[in-house]
């Protein structure tokens, strides 16, 4: 069955005995990870690092032998109690046969939770979990303004702080693309303002203003506008500062997904400025000019080519862990090389295939 985004947290907080397989997927990698951990904790009643109650299985192993999942699900934990089995999809390994065995003979005290990453509607595992009675698919999309406000409230309450209205509005516009990264930045801001008791706009500028999120956006915008020199410089800086390449790739996927929707509106008569102004979450004001340029430059067919390149890079970055940053960097440089020139972008809609 499909779980509505508004119902996701409530569903995951109370594991349903009738639903033994849960797929958590979406474009927000941080939210996927946060909800995976929350569901595992809800199942076993302790932290997700309990090695006896929380078992991690590899997609490749299940593709090679689908029976492994059923055997693990029906085995009793060393100290008894409930068990969570987590799986992270990777590469082209199919775990559908393994999941079908679980759905055919559901375990009594075990739940299977799958980190699907950013799946398309045609994904076999997504279709299976959305249409099966004993399974559920939980989408994780970029946080809305209401979601961001809730996260801000949670963190400032935990730290005994308040936040000025203008500071909240500024902060809301600077976070939201990735739940884990957003929460990390808000926690850092709370720590910075801990002694003053109130978070001001100056605090937000000081802490979030130099966040890696800005550098990530700069790298993505450079790729979208064909500025390979800036892209290479900023990406090297990000990697040197400890930002994983897959986070930059995730940001690029979100950006080109937006460009795909925005370009469709642009080709139906809206101006680039109009579609960017209506974006949710909002585009940070310093980026708007670059994003408007990209909307006007990129034809739909070429955006789809870029999304295919990024999907492949995300998969390869997981399979080739030691080369992950290099894989993503090469993909971004390839995108920069594909960026249309203003002259070519002026061609009639549909002229490029």
Report on the architecture of this protein:
The chain is an alpha/beta fold and 353 residues long. The chain folds into three domains: 135 residues, 3-Layer(aba) Sandwich (Rossmann fold); 63 residues, Helicase, Ruva Protein, domain 3; 134 residues, Zinc Finger, Delta Prime, domain 3 (Up-down Bundle), CATH 1.20.272.10. It is built from 18 helices and seven strands. A five-stranded parallel β-sheet has the order 2-3-4-1-5, with helices on both faces. β3, α5 and β4 form a beta-alpha-beta unit. The protein is globular, with a radius of gyration of 22 Å.
Strand content: 5-15%
- Class of secondary structure makeup: alpha/beta
Major β-sheet strand ordering: 2-3-4-1-5
Give the SSE order as H and E letters: HEHEHHEHEHEHEHHEHHHHHHHHH
Largest sheet: 5 strands, parallel
Percent of residues in helices: 55-70%
Number of helices: 18
How many structural domains does the protein architecture include? 3
State the CATH superfamily name of the largest domain. P-loop containing nucleotide triphosphate hydrolases
* Terminal CA distance: 37 Å
pLDDT < 50 runs, ≥5 residues: 346-353
Question: What labels would you give this structure?
Answer:
353 residues, alpha/beta, Rossmann fold, Helicase, Ruva Protein, domain 3, Zinc Finger, Delta Prime, domain 3, 3 domains, five-stranded parallel beta sheet, two-stranded parallel ribbon, 7 strands, disordered C terminus
Could you outline the blueprint of secondary structure elements for this entry?
Blueprint: H1 8-13, E1 21-25, H2 29-44, E2 54-58, H3 59-64, H4 67-74, E3 83-88, H5 96-104, E4 110-117, H6 124-131, E5 135-139, H7 145-158, E6 162-163, H8 165-174, H9 179-192, E7 198-199, H10 201-207, H11 212-224, H12 228-240, H13 245-267, H14 272-277, H15 288-297, H16 300-319, H17 324-338, H18 342-345
Parallel strand pairs: 1-4, 1-5, 2-3, 3-4, 6-7
Helix pairs in contact: 4-5, 7-9, 8-10, 11-12, 11-13, 11-17, 12-17, 13-15, 13-16, 13-17, 16-17
């Amino acid at each position: 069955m499909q779980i509505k985004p508004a119902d996701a947290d409530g569903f995951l907080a109370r594991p349903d005995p009738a639903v033994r397989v849960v797929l958590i997927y979406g474009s927000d990698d941080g939210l996927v990870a946060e909800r995976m951990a929350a569901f595992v904790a809800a199942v076993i009643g302790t932290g997700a690092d309990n090695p006896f109650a929380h078992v991690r299985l590899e997609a490749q192993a299940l593709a090679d032998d689908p029976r492994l999942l059923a055997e693990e699900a029906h085995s009793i934990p060393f100290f008894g109690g409930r068990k969570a089995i987590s799986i992270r999809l990777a590469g082209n390994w199919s775990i559908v046969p393994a999941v079908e065995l679980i759905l055919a003979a559901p375990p009594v005290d075990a739940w299977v939770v799958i980190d699907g990453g950013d799946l398309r509607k045609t994904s076999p595992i997504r279709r299976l979990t959305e249409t099966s009675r004993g399974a559920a698919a939980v989408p994780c999309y970029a946080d809305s303004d209401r979601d961001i406000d809730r996260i801000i409230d949670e963190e400032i309450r935990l730290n005994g702080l308040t936040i000025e209205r203008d500071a909240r509005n500024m902060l809301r516009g600077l976070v939201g693309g990735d739940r884990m990264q957003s929460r990390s930045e808000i926690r850092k801001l709370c720590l910075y303002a801990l002694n003053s008791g109130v978070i001001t706009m100056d605090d937000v500028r000081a802490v979030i203003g130099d966040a890696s999120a800005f550098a990530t956006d700069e790298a993505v915008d450079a790729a979208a506008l064909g500025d390979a020199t800036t892209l290479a410089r900023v990406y090297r800086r990000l990697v040197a500062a400890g930002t994983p390449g897959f986070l930059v790739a995730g940001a690029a996927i979100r950006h080109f997904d937006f460009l795909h929707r925005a370009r469709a509106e642009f080709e139906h008569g809206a101006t680039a400025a109009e579609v960017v102004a209506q974006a949710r979450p909002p585009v940070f004001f310093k980026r708007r000019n670059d994003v408007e340029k990209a909307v006007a430059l990129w034809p739909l067919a070429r955006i789809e080519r870029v999304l295919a390149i990024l999907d492949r890079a995300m998969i390869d970055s997981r399979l080739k862990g030691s080369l992950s940053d290099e894989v993503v960097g090469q993909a971004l440089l390839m995108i920069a090389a594909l960026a249309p020139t203003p002259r070519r972008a002026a061609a009639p809609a549909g002229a490029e295939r």
